[in-house]
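User: Hi! I'm working on a homework problem where we have to compare a predicted structure to a textbook description. Could you give me the structure for the chain below?
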Amino acid sequence: MEPIAATPALRLADRFLRACDLPALIADDDGRGRVVAIRQFVKDWATSDPARRREMVCDAPRRRRWWHRFNDRRFDLARIAAVVAALCDRDGVPVPAWAGLSRASRPITLTQSAFPATPWNDHIRSEAPAACVRHNVWFREVDLDDHRVHGFR
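Assistant: Happy to help. Predicted structure tokens:
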């Protein structure tokens, strides 16, 4: 009897995600939301040792498809870069050079491509890590410590 081939999701569970893995996982959205892959990356970062963290961010992410420059996927690299820079800044890991190359053209969050002026969004800005300003991608510092299964609050 031949062994049953593991599904891609099971194979991904066998190793830590790297930043360069994220665009493909985000683009191949499984219906749970595009931030699930980023959330898994944050979880993997939290459970890895400092040496492995450098490996997780050494290779630059690339767009999954060429047309992603023109739809909502255009902000994916900025989201990834902001999360990576915030994690590296927080944990003393050198920020990779590629992380400084992606910036959203307008303020966005990790889950939405709009960031209207509201009291809640002002609160998010007040609690955001410095990387958010550099990338124009907004989230709270506590979101990097929230390891719930279902994603960002």
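For your comparison, note the following. The mean pLDDT is 79. The CA atoms of residues 26 and 34 lie 5 Å apart. Good luck with the assignment!
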